[in-house]
Write a structure and sequence with these properties.
alpha+beta
Length: about 90
């Protein structure tokens, strides 16, 4: 992935978390040196995005795993406002 205006290739790290029968994708993207963004994407593509940035990929992943453990997997399945994305193949 190329960063806008810089010509630099952005680094992206993806890690799968499976819990309570639910698959979540942790997506961490390097925006610039020592600045990583964090999203957790559920099975139907709805992303929970953090407003803060992290100094490393590992700290971002750690923050995602902490949030999943503290809030529970079900918190990342909220589809309010995105009901049109749900079909008969997804049990949310």
């Amino acid at each position: 992935m190329k960063s806008e205006g810089t010509g630099k290739i952005a680094l992206e790290h993806r890690q799968t978390f499976i819990g309570e029968g639910v698959r979540l994708e942790i997506v961490v993207t390097e925006l610039r040196k020592d600045e990583w963004s964090l999203s957790v994407v559920n099975e139907i593509g709805i992303a929970s995005n953090w407003n803060e940035f992290f100094e490393s990929k590992d700290r971002a992943v750690e923050a995602a795993l902490d949030a999943i453990r503290e809030e529970g997997v079900k918190e990342f399945l909220n589809i309010e406002g995105f009901e049109y994305l749900q079909d008969d193949h997804h049990d949310v």
